[in-house]
Design goal:
Blueprint (H helix, E strand, L loop, with lengths): L3 E5 H11 L4 E4 L6 H10 L6 E4 L3 H13 L4 E5 L1 H16 L4 E7 L15 H6 L9 E3 L4 H18 L2 E7 H5 L1 E5 L33 H21 L3 E4 L6 E4 L3 H15 L4 E6 L1 E3 L3 H7 L5 E6 L6 H7 L6 E5 L8 H14 L2
Parallel strand pairs: 2-3, 2-4, 4-5, 5-7, 6-7, 10-11, 10-13, 13-14
Antiparallel strand pairs: 1-8, 6-12, 9-11
Length: 353
Amino acid sequence: MSERVLMKGNEALAAAAINAGCHHFFGYPITPQTEVAAYMSKMMPKVGGVYLQAESEVAAINMVLGAAAAGKRAMTSSSSPGISLKSEGVSYIAGSDLPCVIINVQRGGPGLGGIQPSQADYWQATKALGHGDYQLLVFAPSTVQEMVDMVTLAFDKADEYRMPAMILADGMLGQMMEPVTLPEPVKELPKKEWAACGHENKRPHNIVNSLYIEPDELERLVDERYERYAHIQETEQRAECIMTEDADIVVVAFGATARIAMSAVRAARQEGIKAGVIRPITLWPFPNDILKETAKTAKAFLTVEMSKGQMVDDVKLAVECAKPVHFFGRTGGVIPQPNEVLEQIRKIAGGIK
């Protein structure tokens, strides 16, 4: 068992990725995730790995595509505007059925925005990170330790389903320091019989490609992926439920915002208000089943986000509009405060019959 060490979120992510068998990193600096790349630049040579600062975000994601096609565990990291630049390459990776991990340490937007924390890339990550019919796995950690744990999970699930996985963090988690236990280095990675890594005349050529001229062939491949996605939606939903068994008001919040929501819920309980928290851990697949089940007993939901409400529609769909869904959020890099969330809980409680 590794010792607990105090680490900044971005550096803990990088260290965990190396221990998870990622020895190929391609990136480009942008605040507030630059420490990921900086840590990789120092440590990759020590483990016989490859660190390359690309000439642009576009180049970095295409280098990930190449390394992943060769069967390597490859990763890139960026922050909101940089992820937008990578979106075409992510679509190519999905269209080639390749596994990789993408880190997004979100900042305020749109445009260049600011360098403060945000969660306004929710739509981008879960609905539209590139063109075409595809999804990617999206994990939302709420602590530095969870960031560490999710790196290995993201790589494992990306390999299992042959698709890209994203860890959707934010500037708060990337920059905060907390004690963490790093995973032991993996000793053996899964074999990838499909990889284009040389065949020594012992097998047929493996071809990695996302271009299909015949529409029927492309439709067949997309349909196959969506069968895989349906299985993922059935089996990979993850969420944490806190004090929801008897809750009248359920706050839905992910990432760092869930910590703020939890503080508000504890204060509400002290006032006699039955409140609880559902923290989605996977944003895709969204934990629909858990929310739908909770809606059988809860009287109202409150989504709290560092955005203008990008998760609200998913919550409404999950509860099938059976109960009212309220929203409170701050944006532009402003972090919601527990007392602000508590005030919203009080208002909702006052209107519940």
